[in-house]
Amino acid sequence: MNAQLGNLSDPGLQRLVPAEAIVRLEGVSKAYASRDGTPVPALDGINLAVPQGSVLGVIGRSGAGKSTLIRLVNGLEKPTSGRVIVDGADIAALPESALRHARRSIGMIFQHFNLLSSRTAAENVALPLEVAGYDKAAIRARVDELLALVGLADKRDRYPSELSGGQKQRVGIARALATKPKVLLSDEATSALDPETTRSILDLLSRINAELGLTILLITHEMAVIRSIAREVAVIDGGRIVEQGDVFDVFTRPQHEVTRTFLADETGRALPPYVAERLRAEASPGSQAVIRIGFRGPHATDPVLARLARDLNIETNILAGSVDEIAGRPCGTLVVGVPQASLTKTLDFLNKHDLDTEVLGHVS
After folding, report:
1. What whole-number distance in Å separates Cα of residue 291 and Cα of residue 342?
2. Which of 110, 266, 315, 342 places its Cα 20 to 30 Å from the Cα of 349?
3. Residue 84: beta bridge partners?
4. What global pTM score does this model have?
């Protein structure tokens, strides 16, 4: 069978959702049977929409349900209840032949690359095209195009054992793009890489998203990965999505304790040990109130503490903090101590300047 690379849509697949949501999970639950037959829930009532052309990150601890979620999207698992809709097709309801066709629109890259050691880089990239029945000339042209895209044109005849970890992942990305998918799934794809290589892979994925309009669903346990590439984030815990939204908003105003825990080391929210050990819930004579101040957007670089000292004659003791940029927008966190008697005036002043404030406790 000779297939054409240009059109991967199947007119027989019924369109079920608006085009702007290329991936949608509707009330999805998944349970596995334990040894004694008791159902063990992995996902519980997941609702998630991934707009076409977006990059959405799903973050959670080990065992939170991330891997189950991504296996449902590519049809490797079927939900116990609910629907998983990808590019208009209800994945779980498809017969096997239609599912194989639908998977051509879903590329996937893995933590440990999953390359065939007996095949060269070019042969690994060619594999899904061979399985789909493309002719040799089309395969050769597509493989050359993809290896150039990921920066490995000179490594086409190298075997995986001759490639670095970053190069192996680039081969994995090229292979995932072989059949021109509309959705790319990334399952902890940078977890096995060093920081510099991780940055290069994330830069490559960002470029692919921008140039090809490819939708990316990113599964990770690293907030640094989310902040580098994702536009929206969903936080999963215990099989449920506990928080989701714009990356900047979630990073700078986390609502759920699980999100705050993930962000503790990423955005200056973690207290230094010398502060945490002294922190008390109740004030004592001569103690200072400890306030966490969140700076967002246009106010991130305002000299607010200098104004506080100038206008109200309130001196602050800076205990911890950081200034950063998320999704191209500046933000920062400061943890300060102020005299207990000045707490109310300080909070009123900061709130009038549209800053987020949280009283953490008191230190002597």
Report:
1. 12
2. 266
3. 25
4. 0.82
